[in-house]
Every structure is written in C-alpha cells, then in structure tokens.
Amino acid sequence: EPTVRTELMEQIPPIAIFLQESRPKFPTAFFEYLMPIVVRYLTDDNNQVRKAGQEALLILLEQDLVAQSDIENKVCPILLDLSAPDSDDEYKVEAVNIICKMASMLSRTTVEHMLLPRFCELCSDGKLFQVRKICAANFGDICNAVGQEATERLLIPKFFELCSDSVWGMRKACAECFMAVSYTTSPEVRRSKLSPLFISLISDTCRWVRQAAFQSLGPFISTFANPSSAGLYIREDGTLSIRPSMQDVNSNSCQPSNNITLVSSSTNAS
Fold first, then answer.
1. Are 172 and 206 in contact (CB under 8 A)?
2. CA 125, CA 100: separation in Å to the nearest integer?
3. What keywords does the record list, in alphabetical order (predicted)?
4. Fewest CB within 10 A of the end CB: N or C in the chain?
C-alpha cells in the first residue's frame, strides 16, 4: 500500500539520526538498509511516496548523514536518469526540483562535475516550461553552489536565455533572483553583461516582470558596492544585510541594533 510506504519514509530520518548517535553499536545499518530504501523510493510509482522519499533525502543531506560515496554513486545517478531528456514529464519536474534543493548541501566539486551539466541542459528544455521555471527560480542558489568561475563560464549564457524566454513567468523568476546571480560574478561581468540584461528586464513588455525587476533594483545595485566600505554582505539564508560601522556601534552601544535586511529570495519577495 502506498500509504504504508509513505509512513515508512517519514520514519527514516529519525531512525537514521538514532543510528548515527549509536554508531558504535550499528556501524553499517544505515548504509546497508536505510539508504537503499530511500534511493529506491525516489523512483516509486506513487507520487506521494516519491515526495516523502525526496523530503527524507533532503533531511538526511541537511543533517550530513549521507556519505559522499553514496551521494555520487547512488543518489546522483538516479536523479540524472530521472531528469534525462526522454524521462517521464512528472519524474523530470520532480528530479530538477530535488537537484536544485540539493545543490546547496553538496560539495562544490560534486555539484560542478555531476549536476551542473544536467542543470544547464534543463535550462534549455523546450518541452516543459515547468522545468525551465524551476531552473530560473533556483538559478541564484546554483550559482552560489558552484562559484564564480563556473557561473561565468557555464551559467551566465543560460541565464541570458532564461531572461529572454517567451514565457513571462520565466523572466519574472530571473528578475527575482538577479541579485544572487550578480553577487556571484566579477565586477566586470556585472557591469558589462548583467547591467544591460537587467535594463531589458526593467523595460519588459510584461508589467509583472517589470515589477519584479524594480523590486530587485536596490539589491542588484548593492552588489556593485565595496563590502569593506559599504558593510554589505550576504547571509547564509540568501538575504542581503548591512553591517553597521564601528562608529555607529560605539555611538549606539546601548541602543537596539538597527541592521537593515533586504530580502532577495523569490519566496520571501513574492
């Protein structure tokens, strides 16, 4: 019964945490028994079971309970199969979603060598606009996961494609994550390539795209500032924050902190 398998998946993370805490007694139990179940349920026939399996996998990755070898030899190959061009549409949408969510939890080497080539392919998926939209919405996270060199060499050309996509929702998603993409690039790329691209979004024919671009204008401008003098920095949760100067801290030592946080993630902005 699918409901039984779904309930089972929900119990996997707490069992895995218990086994990790009791590792001297159960040194290989998780890798021998639980991890194969999680991997198998990623391709289950029932979508509720698959969803439960995906959520369990993300929790396990977040808790750093999955070995690097299992990620590279078991998890990534399954996701690459599910996101292949000839894969079922429903499986493909789910796979690209989990790839994007996983990126921030994996090592830069793993993301760049195993997942980035497929992500770039999915950005140009002409069959499913849902796939392209997921890629656009998570573009900033992928840039942050792979760093400046891979972003400028492989991702920026794809970002240009998505920013000129015929579906306005794609362009809107790009506008919402523009600051995160800009923050990962060099000042020269920011000035010569991203600035003209942003102007095209702020002049878009669709008012929803223009509105999203105007909301991202301030955060995008802030990426041109020198962090050491402006005090601007990106937190781990993707928000842009302003660190008060030492003079302000000294003069307001008895006052509550008045740090300003500018939300840049698409979820919070919407």
1. yes
2. 15
3. Repeat
4. N
DSSP helix/strand/coil, 254: coil
Question: Which residues, at least 6 apart from 184, have a Cβ–Cβ distance to it below 8 Å?
Answer: 140, 143, 144, 147, 148, 151
- The sheet carrying 240-242 orders its strands as 232-234, 240-242, 261-262
What is the rounded average pLDDT for all residues in the chain?
A: 85
Q: What percent of the chain has pLDDT over 90?
A: 64
DSSP 98-166: HHHHHHTTS-HHHIIIIIHHHHHHHHT-SS-HHHHHHHHHTHHHHHHHH-HHHIIIIIHHHHHHHHT-S
Which pLDDT does position 263 carry in this prediction?
43
What lies within 8 Å, CB to CB, of 203 at 6+ separation is: 210
* Nearest residue to 263 (alpha-carbon basis) of 168, 177, 192, 195: 177
Query: Are 68 and 107 in contact, with CB atoms under 8 Å apart?
Result: yes
Helix (H), strand (E) at residue 232 = strand 232-234
| Three-class secondary structure of residue 243 per DSSP | coil
